[in-house]
Amino acid sequence: MGNWVVNHWFSALFLAVWLGLNVFLFVDAFLKYEKADKYFYTREILGPSLACARASALCLNFNSMLILLPVCRNLLSFLRGTCSFCSRTLRKQLDHNLTFHKLVAYMICLHTAIHIIAHLFNFHRYSRSRQATDGSLASILSSLSHHEKEEGPWLNPIQTPSHITPTMYIFTVTLNMVLSSVNSNL
Asked: Transmembrane ranges (predicted)?
């Protein structure tokens, strides 16, 4: 165990900082969209799925920025050879660049799944609040027309009450994408 700590302390520290940044970005964005007065009415319709979608999108942006850095040959060659601050410990960790690249890819997959699921909940809540007739704040906000508001789009993009469920929507969109890709290959 002692040799592992001596040999891999920098990797463990780097991964801890990277995971910590991901957690910090997610929690910070989540709390921003969950607590800010600016998003009160949107939160009334969508609930916490708005904050989950936005927080995972921020982490997606961060990790999408990072995914190419470990495989940039010129950058790695520069850090290995010409930098005077590049010690032997750092040079050894640069050899694990593909492992970090894969970890970033896994994190992108995780946040993509969170983002998609949050948007499915958003669609469900938009649809449910548009169909509601109970006089709740979400149903009233969903029924506001564009002419009643001076600026900006509607709070609820679903403007006609329909009985499309998120499952039906997914299958329709997936079928449309498959058919369009088949047509483009013909």
From this structure: 12-31, 103-121
Residue 92: domain span = 16-131+163-178
* pTM summary value: 0.72
Residue 148 lies in a domain: no
Residue 37 has pLDDT above 60, yes or no: yes
Which own/partner contact pairs does 126-132 have at CB distance under 8 Å and 24+ positions apart?
126/45, 126/46, 126/156, 126/157, 126/158, 127/158, 127/162, 127/164, 127/165, 127/166, 129/45, 129/156, 130/156, 130/158, 130/159, 130/160, 130/161, 131/161, 131/162, 131/163
In whole angstroms, what is the distance from residue 117 CA to residue 49 CA?
Answer: 9
Domain assignment present for residue 156? The answer is no
pLDDT confidence tier of residue 46, bands split at 50, 70 and 90: confident
